[in-house]
């Protein structure tokens, strides 16, 4: 008895299977928080999706869009993912992502988190640049 191909799959299983989320519970949590939508409508984890649906995934600062090319409930290797989904994220959203990457840690709210190694090196480099003043004697009155 051959297994019939499915024409619908739960969205939480599909998001996990195509490796958009590391675990199914994380995909369910994202859906419940309203970060996943189909055709502009937020969905529930049990929502069935079909081939051709466009799924929007909000991961600040942008919203990614993926078209469903094939259905699966089984997690796959990364090399197989292009057979099951196509990234159709708009260029304007990708531009926002590039701008946020260029801004670096500037967006971090003051006082949140520890400085990174890069932050520390930049601070040390900055303070070393002004160390040449140490050799000067400003109190010398000639």
From TrEMBL:
Residues 9-72 form the RNA-binding S4 domain. It comes from the Bacteria. Keywords: DNA-binding, RNA-binding, Stress response. CDD domains: S4 (cd00165). One of its GO terms (molecular function) is ribosomal large subunit binding. GO terms for biological process: cellular response to heat. InterPro entries: HSP15, S4_RNA-bd, S4_RNA-bd_sf. Belongs to the HSP15 family. This is Ribosome-associated heat shock protein Hsp15. It comes from Dysgonomonas hofstadii. The lineage of its organism: Bacteria, Pseudomonadati, Bacteroidota, Bacteroidia, Bacteroidales.
């Amino acid at each position: 008895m051959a297994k019939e191909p499915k024409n619908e799959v739960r969205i939480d299983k599909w998001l996990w299977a195509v490796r958009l989320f590391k675990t199914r519970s994380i995909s369910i949590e994202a859906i419940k928080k309203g970060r996943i939508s189909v055709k502009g409508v937020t969905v529930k984890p049990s929502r069935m999706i079909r081939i051709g649906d466009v799924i929007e995934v909000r991961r600040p600062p942008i919203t990614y869009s993926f078209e469903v090319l094939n259905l699966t409930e089984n997690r796959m290797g990364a090399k197989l993912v292009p057979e099951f989904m196509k990234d159709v994220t708009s260029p304007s959203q990708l531009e926002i992502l590039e701008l946020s990457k260029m801004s670096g840690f500037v967006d971090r709210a003051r006082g949140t988190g520890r400085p990174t190694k890069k932050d520390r090196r930049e601070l040390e480099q900055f303070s070393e640049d002004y160390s040449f003043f140490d050799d000067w004697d400003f109190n010398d009155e000639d």
